[in-house]
Amino acid sequence: MSESCVRLHFLSLILLCCVSHSTSFFTFKVDSSSYVACGPHQTQALTEFMNEFDSSHCNLSDPFNGVWCDNSTGAVTKLRLSDCLSGTLKPNSSLFRLHHLRYLFLSGNNFTSSTLPFEFGNLNRLEILNLCYNGFVGQVPSSFNNLSLLSYLELSQNELTGSFPLIRNLTKLSVLSLLNNHFS
Ligand SMILES: *[C@@H]1O[C@H](CO)[C@@H](O)[C@H](O)[C@H]1NC(C)=O
Ligand SMILES: *[C@@H]1O[C@H](CO)[C@@H](O)[C@H](O)[C@H]1NC(C)=O
Ligand SMILES: *[C@@H]1O[C@H](CO)[C@@H](O)[C@H](O)[C@H]1NC(C)=O
Ligand SMILES: *[C@@H]1O[C@H](CO)[C@@H](O)[C@H](O)[C@H]1NC(C)=O
Ligand SMILES: *[C@@H]1O[C@H](CO)[C@@H](O)[C@H](O)[C@H]1NC(C)=O
Ligand SMILES: *[C@@H]1O[C@H](CO)[C@@H](O)[C@H](O)[C@H]1NC(C)=O
Fold first, then answer.
1. Structure confidence at residue 20 as a pLDDT band (50, 70, 90)
2. Residue identifier of the C-alpha nearest atom 13 of ligand 1
3. pLDDT tens digit string along 84-114?
4. Structure pTM?
5. Mean pLDDT for all residues in the chain
6. d(Cα 181, Cα 103) in Å, to the nearest integer?
7. 94 CB under 6 A from ligand 4?
8. Which of 65, 77, 126, 160 could form a disulfide with 181 if both were Cys (CB 3.0 to 4.6 A apart)?
9. CB distance 92 to 69 below 8 Å
């Protein structure tokens, strides 16, 4: 992974530390037993999502990666899968059924030649979205303006093109990284 991406990971850690005081991300259990707390529908969507890709290199026991669910609702609220998925991210991906996601960290995966689906706009509870170093192509869809709770958006190290959409709705955004793309 490139140096700037690593640096941004470091920044994201700093940010998460700050954010944790207000939104308590770190109250999610960081061990594999938390998977059990995920509701059956959510577990199914997640399994389907993993099966859309070659995910044989993903290690959900690695504390760096994994899935965290709200232990009262069973909804997936945090998902982190880095450097292990390979395949195309499609608009009908089961990822977009995980409507309760607040934290989505997918970086360094091989989504080579995938575009960013418009359906990202459905994940409108997202606060942290990191999609760096994935090989995404094409334009950032206008639906990103739907993610009005987003405070951190990291899209660096992809092959994104065109102009960046108006994101007037993203009033909470405090970190936006677009480094090393091909925006006009
Ligand atoms: C998965 O991660 C855990 C925790 O870091 C480690 O103990 C285990 O060896 C890893 N498994 C594989 C197949 O790499
Ligand atoms: C669920 O979370 C609450 C606090 O948020 C905790 O007291 C409780 O033990 C947790 N339950 C399980 C099953 O982890
Ligand atoms: C990424 O995936 C494509 C096919 O989707 C494959 O041709 C390529 O070798 C993969 N790259 C890496 C680094 O795994
Ligand atoms: C998702 O769309 C692709 C075409 O892009 C199709 O081949 C696939 O069957 C669809 N999957 C589901 C679960 O609908
Ligand atoms: C915005 O989010 C709502 C609620 O999830 C959804 O119904 C709507 O289709 C989304 N709009 C866009 C443009 O993504
Ligand atoms: C802006 O966010 C609100 C929810 O806060 C949503 O209803 C609205 O559709 C969003 N506007 C656009 C253009 O996505």
1. very low
2. 59
3. 999 999 999 999 999 999 999 999 999 988 9
4. 0.82
5. 82
6. 23
7. no
8. 160
9. no
